[in-house]
Every structure is written in structure tokens, then in C-alpha cells.
């Protein structure tokens, strides 16, 4: 799993259409909140499907981060706003927070 994540980051780092954005702004909060909700929802869904606790956690994180990466990939097309590493960082922070909140609520 780590290898596939690193491979994805490596492949996506060559995007030629990059966003020129700041670290702050309403869209960053939206990335954070959406990723947190998707991570927690993915964790809960996987657990209800009978996954082990650890697999549920991994599923939720990968689900949320992959949707964030897909959104940035969509943005990197010529008609899009450009790939934003800052948005992606907020996606990862949100996914991690959603995971942590799910862990606290689950136990």
C-alpha cells in the first residue's frame, strides 16, 4: 500500500498545470471537512461490511485520500484550475482527522 501511494505521488508530481493558490481560504476548509467526513464514513462503511478494525481504518483513509487525489487530477486537466499540493495537503489532514474522530467515537 505504501508503494502504491508513493508511486501515485511520483506520477502526479509531473503535472504541468499547477494551481497558484494560498494555504488559506474557504476551499481549504471545504477540502479538510469533506475529507474528514469521507474518511470517517469510509471507516464506518467498511466496519459494517465486516472488515476488521485495522482494515476498516485503512479503507477509510485510502478512500478519502484517493478521492482527494482524483479531484486534484481532475483540476489538473487543461480546462481545470490546476493541481494544488496545498489542497491535497488539506485533504490528507482532513482524512487523518476523520480517522482520529472515528477512532474516538468507536471506542
Summarize the structure.
By secondary structure, the protein is mainly α. It is 74% helix and 0% strand.
Give me the secondary-structure topology.
Layout: H1 2-12, H2 26-48, H3 53-75, H4 85-106
Helix pairs in contact: 2-3, 2-4, 3-4
Summarize the structure in words:
- This protein has 107 residues and is mainly alpha-helical.
- It has 4 helices and no strands.
- The chain has helices at 2-12, 26-48, 53-75, 85-106.
- Helix 2 (26-48) packs antiparallel against helix 3 (53-75), helix 2 crosses helix 4 and helix 3 runs antiparallel to helix 4.
- The longest helix has 23 residues, at 26-48.
- It is globular and about 40 Å long.
- The relative contact order is 0.21.
- The mean pLDDT is 85.
Task: Work out the helicity level.
Answer: over 70%
Largest sheet: none
- The span between the termini is 26 Å
* Overall SS class: mainly alpha
| Element string (H = helix, E = strand) | HHHH
Please give the number of β-strands: 0
Number of discrete helical segments: 4
Low-confidence stretches: none
Q: Which oligomeric state applies? A: single chain
Question: How confident overall, as mean pLDDT?
Answer: 85
> What is the approximate shape?
globular
Keywords:
mainly alpha, 4 helices
Amino acid at each position: 500500500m505504501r508503494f502504491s501511494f508513493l508511486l501515485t505521488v511520483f506520477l502526479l508530481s509531473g503535472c504541468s498545470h499547477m494551481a497558484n493558490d494560498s494555504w488559506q481560504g474557504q476551499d481549504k476548509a471545504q477540502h479538510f471537512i469533506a475529507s474528514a467526513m469521507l474518511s470517517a464514513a469510509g471507516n464506518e462503511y467498511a466496519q459494517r461490511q465486516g472488515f476488521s478494525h485495522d482494515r476498516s481504518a485503512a479503507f477509510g483513509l485510502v478512500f478519502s485520500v484517493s478521492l482527494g487525489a482524483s479531484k486534484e487530477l481532475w483540476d489538473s486537466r487543461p480546462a481545470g484550475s490546476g493541481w494544488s499540493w496545498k489542497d491535497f495537503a488539506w485533504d490528507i489532514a482532513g482524512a487523518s482527522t476523520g480517522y482520529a474522530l472515528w477512532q474516538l467515537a468507536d471506542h
